[in-house]
């Protein structure tokens, strides 16, 4: 609808552009965009592409500060990683983080965005408060939640104990792998869900109200309107939301590290990269593991986009 | 049109030039160079400790013209920051913690300036016995600034309430006393063991192994704890059994050493910490604002297999990373910070206004003697003999691969505590890691 109205609106600037080709200036004009974006391109090259290429190359070398010199090692780093129980365990942990985190943050994002879709008194304030957890650093959140999960004086166990639901030790991080991962991921979802809400809300704001009015006149129930109008038209936003959740959960570090230390019950694959690189000083394996994480992130993100994203024209 | 194109082109070229200028770096000295300036500079000192009294730092600034920016970071994070900064060859601080456990690695990697180039370490050696633990291939990696060692602490009031001997001589007597405290309901969980997967769990096991009469690694780095009859194996079993039998709070599976000391021992929630840190009675348990057990916690000689066991030393040192901006100024600070008289001041020998509240025991024996003579060392009559008899954790010094070994120790002992593996499996995994690392494979 908005597209139609914008195409009928005359654009005054067009009338000032001289008609016909301008071969004399074309080559200069063609260079200009590249020149203008070159600063950003150089930044990206310096900060992303060069390190990425370096990582790919170095992952095939033995780069160990305690075992110099650097030498070609083929797939040696990858083989050693596959045999490392801590790494294999962390891959399983990370898979759980991704499943729980992406599912919860997407559901919360859709639910909260639908609630916030229609204007109400105090809506701006709610959105402002909602964004706070996203704005906080992961380490700060980890420390905050450490107090809540504290086994001896934490809020959760104290409440359960005062309600006579447990002896005060029912919820312990590290006691059980699934519980530990679920609790840690809950903290991360608390952080990433606000962005999911905002991304989906932005898409919902673009859906014309006339569609809902027409559906209502045709006897459509609110649930049908949600499943047949809201969800299909929100798919681009949901896809972006899911991709950002995939990236965040696959690379989760702060929350498990602060809340559960190096314990295998919650260690993520990014934590293992950190331990291998900066504790064991085996950078070759660190590069290899980083490369694997990048490839997996790309593949899952592409899969999500392929499954969820649909081009929508309003 | 042409004019606007030229303007845009000029803007593009200008922005490109700005970016290239930004990328080209400054004229600073290359990494590892550092400045020889020792006056009118600000140095950053990063230790896992509160800052010394402001008056002391101000006096140092007045005397030398060097301003100190003190950064307090928890021990585990500090070690990671040191490694990350050194491997990235970036500046982090001018002087940092050099822990006894990292000396082998730091010596091999050459990340720190040899302190013997800055300080007369030979003259210092006789008065600072733990200097040897910081020496690799004849070079001193860091100067020890305290003489910390591991020691058993007991809340005497809780022991006495249960009718238990507050100074048991053997592990069996100690365990029986803890069981009596629990049985009589004095406290629900009498023993503090920090089972969180962090360095504090490793050192607890080392000290307990020493108490059982053994050591962790031999001089070649070979594991000495694989047999079920070995002290290391027995120590691990004793620790895990203590948790399973309810002597240790179940929540301790995610409690670190400092959390256990501050939230359990200092609050009277538990009656004893088998492997505590020397100095904690004076700097934590007897400090009213952070403790509810003032005057009740005492050091005891380590209960051993058949009598008092050894105390293992874990001194903290301070050194200068090669990426320091002002290594000479940092050296001046270290010389001041570790001097006998300064340590005596920090330890409270010369009045409370000069006292460094969280400072443990001085590394200079002469400073310790001053403290003892003036009665400033809380529990000094117990600590001094233990200090003199304290032993290093590893006979051959900390191996260069210690961080990876320690990671295997604390993750697997934590796993045994949570029940995800048996003690036997944990010990086997730790031993396999040690064998693999010692063989260089």
Automatic annotation (TrEMBL), chain A:
Source organism phylogeny: Bacteria, Bacillati, Actinomycetota, Actinomycetes, Propionibacteriales
Keyword check for Transmembrane helix: yes
Location relative to the cell: Cell membrane
Name of this chain's protein: Carbohydrate ABC transporter membrane protein 1 (CUT1 family)
Keyword Cell membrane belongs to the record: yes
Region feature (Disordered): 1-21
UniProt xrefs under Pfam families: BPD_transp_1
Protein topology in the membrane: Multi-pass membrane protein
Organism: Kribbella pratensis
Family label: Belongs to the binding-protein-dependent transport system permease family.
CDD domains: TM_PBP2
Automatic annotation (TrEMBL), chain B:
Lineage: Bacteria, Bacillati, Actinomycetota, Actinomycetes, Propionibacteriales
Stated name of the protein: Carbohydrate ABC transporter substrate-binding protein (CUT1 family)
Superkingdom of this protein's organism: Bacteria
Coiled coil ranges: none
InterPro entries hit by this protein: Bact_solute-bd_prot1 (IPR050490), SBP (IPR006059)
């Amino acid at each position: 609808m908005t597209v139609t109205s914008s195409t009928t609106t005359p654009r005054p600037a067009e009338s000032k552009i001289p008609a016909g080709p301008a071969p004399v200036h074309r080559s200069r004009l063609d260079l200009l965009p590249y020149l203008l974006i070159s600063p950003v391109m150089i930044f990206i090259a310096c900060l992303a592409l060069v390190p990425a290429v370096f990582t790919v190359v170095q992952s095939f070398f033995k780069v160990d500060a305690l075992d110099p010199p650097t030498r070609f090692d083929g797939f040696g780093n990858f083989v050693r990683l596959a045999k490392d129980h801590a790494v294999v365990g962390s891959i399983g942990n990370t898979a759980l983080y991704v499943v729980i985190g992406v599912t919860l943050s997407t559901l919360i994002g859709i639910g909260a965005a639908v609630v916030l879709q229609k204007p109400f008194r105090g809506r701006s304030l709610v959105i402002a408060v909602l964004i706070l957890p996203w704005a906080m650093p992961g380490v700060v959140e980890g420390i905050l939640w450490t107090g809540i999960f504290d086994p001896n004086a934490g809020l959760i166990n104290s409440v359960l104990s005062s309600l006579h639901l447990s002896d005060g030790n029912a919820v312990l991080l590290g006691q059980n792998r699934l519980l530990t991962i679920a609790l840690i991921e809950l903290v991360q979802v608390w952080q990433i869900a606000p962005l999911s809400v905002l991304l989906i809300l932005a898409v919902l704001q673009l859906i014309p109200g006339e569609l809902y009015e027409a559906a209502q006149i045709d006897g459509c129930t609110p649930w049908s309107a949600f499943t047949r109008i809201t969800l299909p038209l929100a798919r681009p936003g949901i896809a972006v939301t899911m991709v950002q959740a995939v990236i965040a959960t696959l690379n989760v570090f702060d929350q498990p590290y602060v809340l559960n230390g190096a314990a295998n019950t919650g260690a993520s694959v990014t934590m293992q990269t950190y331990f291998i690189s900066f504790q064991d000083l085996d950078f070759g394996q660190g590069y290899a593991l980083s490369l694997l994480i990048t490839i997996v992130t790309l593949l899952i993100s592409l899969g999500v986009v392929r499954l969820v994203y649909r081009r929508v024209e309003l | 049109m042409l004019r606007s194109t030229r303007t845009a082109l000029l803007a593009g070229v200008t922005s490109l030039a700005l970016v290239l200028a930004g990328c080209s770096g400054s004229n600073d000295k290359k990494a590892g160079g550092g400045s020889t300036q020792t006056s009118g500079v600000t140095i950053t000192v990063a230790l896992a400790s509160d800052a010394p009294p402001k008056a002391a730092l101000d006096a140092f600034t007045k005397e030398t013209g060097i301003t100190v920016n003190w950064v307090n970071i928890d021990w585990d994070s500090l070690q990671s920051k040191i490694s990350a900064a050194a491997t990235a060859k970036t500046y982090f601080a001018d002087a940092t913690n050099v822990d006894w456990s990292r000396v082998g690695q730091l010596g091999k990697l050459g990340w720190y300036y040899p302190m013997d180039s800055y300080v007369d370490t030979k003259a210092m050696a006789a008065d600072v016995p733990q200097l040897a633990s910081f020496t690799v291939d004849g070079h001193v990696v860091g100067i020890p600034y305290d003489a910390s060692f591991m020691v058993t602490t007991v809340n005497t009031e809780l022991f006495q309430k249960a009718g238990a001997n507050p100074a048991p001589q053997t592990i069996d007597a100690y365990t029986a006393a803890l069981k009596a405290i629990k049985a009589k309901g004095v406290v629900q969980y009498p023993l503090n063991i920090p089972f969180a997967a962090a360095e504090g769990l490793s050192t607890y096991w080392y000290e307990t192994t020493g108490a059982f009469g053994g050591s962790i690694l031999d001089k070649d780095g070979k594991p000495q704890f694989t047999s079920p009859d070995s002290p290391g194996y027995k120590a691990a079993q004793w620790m895990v059994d203590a948790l399973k039998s309810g002597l240790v709070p179940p929540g301790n599976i995610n409690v670190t050493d400092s959390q256990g000391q501050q939230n359990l021992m200092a609050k009277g929630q538990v009656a004893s910490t088998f492997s505590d840190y020397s100095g904690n009675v004076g700097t934590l348990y007897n400090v009213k604002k952070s403790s509810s057990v003032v005057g009740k916690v005492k050091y005891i000689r380590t209960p051993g297999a058949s009598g008092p066991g050894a105390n293992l030393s874990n001194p903290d040192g301070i050194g200068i990373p090669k990426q320091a901006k002002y290594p000479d100024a940092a050296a001046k600070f270290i010389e001041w910070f570790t001097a006998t008289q300064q340590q005596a001041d920090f330890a409270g020998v010369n009045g409370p206004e000069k006292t460094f509240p969280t400072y443990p025991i001085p590394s200079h024996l002469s400073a310790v003697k001053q403290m003892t003579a003036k009665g400033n060392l809380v529990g000094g009559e117990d600590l001094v003999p233990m200090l003199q008899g304290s032993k290093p954790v590893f006979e051959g010094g900390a191996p260069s691969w210690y961080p990876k070994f320690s990671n295997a120790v604390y993750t697997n002992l934590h796993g045994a505590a949570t029940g995800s593996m048996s003690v036997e499996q944990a010990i086997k995994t730790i031993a396999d890691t040690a064998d693999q690392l010692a063989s260089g494979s």
